[in-house]
Amino acid sequence: MLIVIDQTPERSCLRAAKIVAALIKKKPWPVLGLATGKSPLGLYRELIRMHREEGLDFSRVTTFNLDEYYGIANDHPHSFFRQIHQEFLDHTNIRKENSHVPNGSAPDFEKTCQEYEKAILDAGGIDLQILGIGRTGHIGFNEPTSSLASRTRLKTLSNETIEDNRNNDIPTVAVTMGIGTILEARQMLMLAFGDAKAEALVKAIEGPITSSVSASALQLHPNVTVLADEAAAANLTHRDYYGRVVEQTAKYSPERLGLI
């Protein structure tokens, strides 16, 4: 796990965008896993700028969103379908048929979950999964006690997650990729910003691997880059060592740091 600490979220998001852009340029048909929420907004804004000003081509990119509230339509003002389109997809040349979000209004949720898993498989799997981290240490909507082998499924939201979304007009359940699904991505990029994420980040990176903190399962993955600002990284015990690793990575694998 590569831990990169920048002074500001803006710097981390610029770094993240360069990492994503490098994949898009390198692979003929790249598959991205997308997250919603505040953490990746700066990343998406920079990718949009690259598309508009530098000609970054998304026409061969396929995307899969991590999750969606269950029981709401795509055009609901709080749906992740609407959010990801407004914040990213509608501002690039990603083909509509290549962008996927779990169906939050499907009457048969078990069927829609199985179909989502199959669609990821049919696309060749996810090359790079973008992640945020919740206050309880969750990724996607894999709340505490989620199985580390879980697949895409319906999940009940915790009180903390509902409070963090600051809206009473959302369902209390969601369709989410499972931990097992997420871990099959070939590369992970997790963003963590602000002091509200500091405790969760420590548990995810330096704590035990446990279903109580679903992000801790990333310790099992061979290719994870965590991009954090100073506030989110404030409580990490091994900060000096992480810095030394980054220095060596800059020499031998600069592309992992968004340096080329």
Task: Record keyword descriptors for this entry.
single chain; 260 residues; alpha/beta; seven-stranded parallel sheet; three-stranded antiparallel sheet; 16% strand
- Given the structure, what is the number of helices? 8
Order of helices and strands: EHEHEEHEHEEHEHEHEH
Radius of gyration: 17 Å
Low-confidence stretches: none
Q: What is the CATH first-level class name?
A: Alpha Beta
Helicity range: 25-40%
Total tally of structural domains = 1
> How far apart are the termini?
20 Å
Describe, in plain words, how this protein is organized in 3D.
The chain is α/β, with parallel strands linked by helices. It has a single domain (about 1-195, about 225-255), classed as Rossmann fold. The protein is about 35% helix and about 15% strand. It is built from eight helices and ten strands. It has helices at about 10-25, 40-55, 80-85, 110-120, 160-165, 180-185, 200-205, 240-250, and strands spanning about 1-5, 30-35, 60-65, 65-70, 100, 130, 155, 175, 185-190, 225-230. The strands form two sheets. The protein has a seven-stranded parallel beta sheet with strand order 1-10-9-6-2-3-5. Strands 4-8-7 form a three-stranded antiparallel beta sheet. Helix 2 links the parallel strand 2 and strand 3. The two termini are about 20 Å apart.
Task: Detail the topology: elements first, then pairings.
Elements: E1 2-6, H1 9-26, E2 31-34, H2 41-54, E3 62-65, E4 67-69, H3 80-87, E5 99-100, H4 109-122, E6 128-131, E7 153-156, H5 159-164, E8 173-176, H6 179-183, E9 187-192, H7 198-206, E10 224-229, H8 239-252
Parallel strand pairs: 1-10, 2-3, 2-6, 3-5, 6-9, 9-10
Antiparallel strand pairs: 4-8, 7-8
Helix pairs in contact: 1-2
